[in-house]
Amino acid sequence: VQLQASGGGLVQPGGSLRLSCTATASTFLTYTMGWFRRAPGKEREFVAAIRYSGRTTIYGDAVKGRFSISRDSGKNTVHLQMNSLKPEDTAVYYCAADRTNVPTTYAPNYDHWGQGTQVTVSS
User: Fold this and answer.
1) How is residue 73 annotated by DSSP?
2) How many CA atoms lie within 13 A of 100 on its CB side?
3) Which of 25, 65, 83, 86 has the fewest CB atoms within 10 Å, counting from its CB?
């Protein structure tokens, strides 16, 4: 599985962005998909994950109520809608795929990673 992330950019505090991650393989349909982020000088942080069925989602505490993950299986794509963005959301965001069907916050469980897309929240 190869993953291609897109949608990053510069946004003002309080604004919104939508990230997308497209997988190249049809096996994507059975994978859990997740988003992680890494800010400069900080550890990698779990953001959100969605089960292959789309019926189960989990979120990191820092983004609950502001971010929403969804998937479009017909297009092998997962989205991360980010609202009410804050400067502390500035990071490189990575999508990842886990062949199991139990969404997890544990990064080593994810087998495949995309290249990352930069999100900068600043006025």
Assistant:
1) G
2) 10
3) 65
Q: Residue 76: its pLDDT value, please? A: 85
Residues 6+ apart with CB under 8 A from 104: 32, 34, 49, 58, 98
Residues 6+ apart with CB under 8 A from 118: 8, 9, 91, 92, 93
Size of the chain, expressed as the number of residues it contains: 123
Taking a C-beta distance cutoff of 8 angstroms, is the pair 82, 120 a contact?
no
Give me the pLDDT at residue 102, please: 86
Task: Give me the pLDDT at residue 116, please.
Answer: 94
Name the strands in the sheet holding 67-72, side by side, starting at the edge strand that comes first in the sequence: 3-6, 17-23, 77-82, 67-72
62-85 confidence digits (pLDDT tens): 999 999 999 987 778 999 999 999
Which tens digits make up the pLDDT trace of 6-29? 999 999 999 999 999 998 876 677
